[in-house]
Prior knowledge:
The chain is mostly helical. The chain is 70% helix and 4% strand. The protein has one domain (2-335).
Amino acid sequence: MFAMFGASVVVPLMFHINPAIVLLMNGIGTLLFILITKGKAPAYLGSSFAFLAPVAIILGNKSMNYSYALGGFVAVGAIFCIVALIIKLFGIKWIDILLPPAAMGAVVALIGLGLAGSAAQTGGMLTNVNPKNAIVFVVTLLVAVFGMVLYRKFLAVIPILIAMVVGYVLSCSLGLVNFDSVRKAAWFALPNFQAPHFSLNAILIIIPASLVVISEHIGHQLVTSKIVGRDLIKDPGLHRSLLADGISTMLSGFCGAVPTTTYGENIGVMAITKVYSVWIIGGAAVISAALSFIGKVAAFIISIPGPVIGGVSILLYGMIAASGIRLLVESKVDYSRSRNLALTSIVLVTGLSGIYIPIGSVQLSGLTLATIVGMALGLIFYVFDRFHLANDYE
C-alpha cells in the first residue's frame, strides 16, 4: 500500500479531485482483481498515469469538466472487457499489428512529454517564481531522483512517497501549508462520489490511452510471471486479468475516481520481499479502502502544496516518457529500417505539433490523433508486408 500510495494519490491531485474516492476504488478494484483471477495473479491496482494527458485536454475545455472524463473512463473499461474477449479468442499478436513497437513507444513517450509544462505550472515555476516555492520544488525533485539511485531494498520502491513527505515537511517549515482544511475536516466522512457524463468528443480523447494501458498490463503480467515462477498469461489467463482491470476501471468511472492499472511499484515489492500472497495484497487493499473514510487523511493529502506535487510530477512525467524509450529499446526496434523511423517520427511530430482534424463537433488532436495515425500506418505497413511490397525485402 505504501509502495503505491505516493504515485497513486498524485493522479487525483492533478485532476483536482478528492483522493479519498481514489483510495476507495483502488482497494475495491484490487479485491475484484483477486476475485476474478481466482487468487492466482498477485497484483495491486493503483491510479493509472496513462490518462493524464487526455484528461488535461478535457479539463482545459471550458465546455467540459471532470464528469466527462469519467464517461471516457467507463468507455475505456468496456474496451478492456472487449479486448479481454478478443485475447481469449485470438491471442495477443494482433496488438503488435495494430500498434507496432515503433509506434507504441512513441505514443507512451508522448504521454509524458505532453505533460511537462503542466508539472512546471503546478510547481509555480513558470511565472513570478516565489523563492520558497522554488526551494521546495527543487528539494522534492532531488530527493526523489537521488532516492531512485541511492535507496536500497524496500526504500528503493517508495522514493516518490519519501520525496512527498520531505517536501511536505519543508513546506510546513517555510509556512506554505494551510492547515485550516485539516482542522475543519471530520474524522470520518464519505468519499466524494460523482456520476459520469458521456460525450463522444471526450470518449475519443480518452480512448487512445487504453491501448497503452493494455500493453502495460501485458508487460506487467509477463514480469510478474517471472517473479512468481508461474505463467500467469495461461493460468489464470491474460483475458481474466485484463477483464478484472476493465471492470475496476468502469466501476471507478461510475463512482468518480480514476482508471486503475496493475502497479509496477508493487511488482517491485514482490520481487524484493519474495512475498506473493494475494491474502496480504488483499489486506493492503482493505486498509486503502478504509483510509478513504477518514476525512483528515484526505484533507492532509489535499493540503500538499503545488511545489511538492510539481517536483514529484517532473520526475513521474519524465519516467513515463522514458518508459516509451525503454519500450523501443526492449523491443529492439531497428531504426535502419525506414518503416520504424517513419512510424516513430510521424507519431511524435503529430502528437506535439498541435495539428488537429475537426470531425463534426469532435476535434482529433494530440495523443488521440497520434495514436490513430500510428494505428493506420501500422495496418498499412502490415498490408505491405503481406504482399512483399516494402523495400526492406530487397
